[in-house]
TrEMBL record:
Similarity section: Belongs to the ATP-dependent AMP-binding enzyme family.
PANTHER family (UniProt xref): ACETOACETYL-COA SYNTHETASE
One function term, GO molecular function aspect: acetoacetate-CoA ligase activity
Keywords linked to the UniProt accession: ATP-binding, Ligase, Nucleotide-binding
Protein name in the entry: Acetoacetate--CoA ligase
PROSITE patterns linked: AMP_BINDING
Length: 657
């Protein structure tokens, strides 16, 4: 069947041949006597021959290890697979392989401050901080936490921590005190790196009062290392003089005896990171990721799926509370220049990140679907106002990017680039579906499934389906599965999170479809899927239509239990000065009906002032659904604006027909 949808972009044959992805395909053909003609054949080979694939990726990615071992896969179960069971390696050593004067990290703060470290300087900074951590008694398996903005010092602290075989965990300084305690309180860090303040949306926020509470309530913290951001180093030292267990970053480093940087060799599945689920259904789950799986997966996603090399300048708009920060920092293993930005993406103006893209010659620009939608609503057209000469790829994640978002990027940002909508999660610290510089880009679709990942869509009866909606699963084990959850000795929480639906198969919790040309469409979270009249509808299908209504700035859609069924309720935020009248409601309903089905049309459309989101920008349909049904919402500290939930309590409009 021919596809009537035309691609928005496709690479030339010359461009394909020049990619690392195609180089890898040719290498597979040569080494394994294959004749794989294209990516789809390569993906099938990588799934059918997982051990050969991951083994070759190890070589291609030039993984540094003191031992590799003969075995690629020991026990092959989910959970509990044993990848490279005899290997010994260090994560930081792989990210610090370059020691030259090329820029490694460029830090940009909202207030205009800029700092840069070369690869050689980065190595020296990590060496000094690792000596200080070792002097403070940090060793293999200890936890070190960061309550930090996205700055150079955070990356240095992570690398110093992991060089010692210790475990890094972080969240951003906009987390409230309970959010920090819910996370770090569970994992017991020995050392906490924290900023004394930060800049956001034109304001300077003081963190010191929260630091006092954190140290007071987390007994495991032996040392609080305070990093100056909003104050000078001298003022910081003065202001923390009475703070329990606190020392300035400068004093922490200067007071430690010099020690050459060594890299503690650990097993492949040694804990590297502890990440936190951002759901609102209870205390955050503490997801433990291993050294080897994270490294291999990120090398694969950077070098093959994003074609990152030493020539690139990689930017991702993220905070240290989102897994995309960890993903971004792994770009050091490719030798690229990483641009770290901390602040509001719209301050002082909507185009501020594009100014930076020109100034820093950014070639790969990563952001969220929400940002792209907000940029379009703001009428921003970087193509007309900026050069963007080196920009060759835009990455989007966090939620499904609507078709209109795809078209906006090509129309108003740059026509000749690879727009990669990517999707995976904190659960795997990476992606199941992502970009590919050798494939065309179709509106609304993620280009492909990741190499080595047996990603399928299953119907309710556990059968793989194509061109039908169903549950996104990974049918066989893969190296970047979590080691487990912290404080889950029998593994029951971990098992319950992913393996309850189908034993031995990873069920990710996304409602998705694999298209006829091998792309993936994500329709939203499975647990937020609407079910009017027993028909499953992904919320992304409705959001896609709502994006077309100019009067609307934002929306959230839930299913309300009503008369032994479910009815669709759409909450909308309007542009300033507008109110929701019958005419606008009719316009919204007509737009949705024209491009979907009558079942998608909301029974109720209600104006609200704000939409609750997690700190990483995801809307929280489950939390709103719970409020509407009078149920409690736990873990509100995961929300950037928990006060918005009150807007959905006891709404008269939802009490009647």
């Amino acid at each position: 069947m021919s596809n009537p949808v035309q691609p928005l972009w496709q690479p030339t044959a010359e461009a394909i041949a020049a990619t690392q992805m195609d180089q890898f395909r040719r290498q597979v053909n040569e080494l394994h006597q294959q004749s794989l003609p294209d990516y789809h054949a390569l993906h099938q080979w990588s799934v059918d021959n997982r051990e050969a694939f991951w083994n070759q990726l190890w070589d291609f990615g030039e993984v540094i290890a003191s031992e590799r071992g003969e075995r690629v896969l020991g026990k092959d179960t989910m959970p509990g697979a044993e990848w490279f069971p005899d290997a010994r390696l260090n994560f930081a050593e792989n990210l610090l392989r370059f020691r030259d004067d090329k820029a490694a990290l460029v830090e940009r703060l909202e207030n205009g401050r800029r700092r840069e470290l070369s690869y050689g300087e980065l190595f020296a900074e990590v060496e000094k901080l690792a000596a200080a951590l070792a002097n403070a008694g940090v060793g293999k398996g200890d936890r070190v936490a960061g309550f930090m903005p996205n700055i150079i010092d955070t990356a240095v602290a992570m690398l110093a921590t992991t060089s010692l075989g210790a475990v890094w965990t972080s969240c951003s300084p906009d987390f409230g005190i309970n959010g920090v305690l819910d996370r770090f309180g569970q994992v017991g860090p020995k050392v906490l790196f924290a900023c004394e303040g930060y800049f956001y949306n034109g304001k300077t926020i003081d963190s010191l009062p929260r630091l006092e509470q954190i140290v007071d309530q987390i007994e495991s913290i032996q040392q609080l290392v305070v990093v100056p951001v909003a104050r000078s180093p001298e003022q910081t030292e003065t202001d923390i003089a009475g703070l329990d267990r606190a020392v300035s970053l400068r004093a922490f480093v200067e007071n430690a005896p010099a020690r050459p940087l060594t890299f503690e060799q650990t097993e492949f599945n040694h804990p590297l990171y502890i990440m936190y689920s951002s759901g609102t259904t209870g205390v955050p789950k503490c997801i433990v990721h291993g050294v080897g799986g994270t490294l291999l997966q990120h090398i694969k996603e950077h070098r093959l799926h994003t074609d990152i090399s030493r020539n690139d300048s990689l930017f991702y708009f993220t905070t240290c509370g989102w897994m995309m920060w960890n993903w971004l920092i792994s770009g050091l293993a490719c030798g690229a220049t990483l641009v770290l930005y901390d602040g509001s993406p719209f301050y002082p103006a909507a185009e501020c990140l594009w100014d930076m893209a020109d100034e820093e010659s950014i070639s790969v620009f990563g952001t969220s679907a929400k940002y792209i939608a907000a940029l379009e609503k703001a009428g921003c057209k970087p193509r007309e106002s900026h050069k963007l000469e080196r920009l060759r790829a835009v990455l989007s994640t966090g939620s499904p990017l609507a078709h209109e978002g795809f078209r906006y990027v090509y129309r108003d940002i740059k026509p000749d680039l690879c727009l990669s909508s990517i999707s995976g999660g904190t659960d795997i610290i990476s992606c199941f579906a992502l970009g590919n510089p050798t494939l065309p880009v179709y509106p609304g679709e993620l280009q492909c499934r990741g190499l080595g990942m047996a990603v399928q869509v299953w119907s309710d009866d556990g059968k793989p389906v194509l061109e039908e909606k169903g549950e996104l699963v990974c049918a066989t084990s893969f190296p970047c599965m979590p080691i487990g959850f912290w404080n889950d000795p029998d593994g029951s929480k971990y098992h319950g999170a992913y393996f309850d639906s189908w034993p031995g198969v990873w069920a990710h919790g996304d409602y998705a479809e694999i298209t006829e040309h091998g792309g993936v469409i994500i329709y939203g979270r499975s647990d937020a899927v609407l079910n009017p009249g027993g028909v499953r509808i992904g919320t992304a299908e409705i959001y896609r239509q709502v994006e077309k209504v100019e009067e609307l700035l934002d929306s959230i859609c839930i299913g309300q239990e009503w008369r032994d069924d479910v009815r669709v309720v759409l909450f909308v935020v309007l542009r300033e000065g507008l109110t929701l009248d019958d005419e606008l409601i009719q316009k919204i309903r007509t737009t949705i009906r024209a491009n979907t089905t009558p079942r998608h049309v909301p029974a109720k459309v209600i104006q609200v002032a704000d939409i609750p989101r997690t700190i990483s920008g995801k809307i929280v349909e489950l939390a709103v659904r719970n409020v509407v049904h009078g149920k409690p919402v736990k873990n509100q500290e995961a929300l950037a604006n928990p006060e918005a939930l009150k807007l959905y309590e006891d709404l008269e409009a939802l009490a009647g027909e």
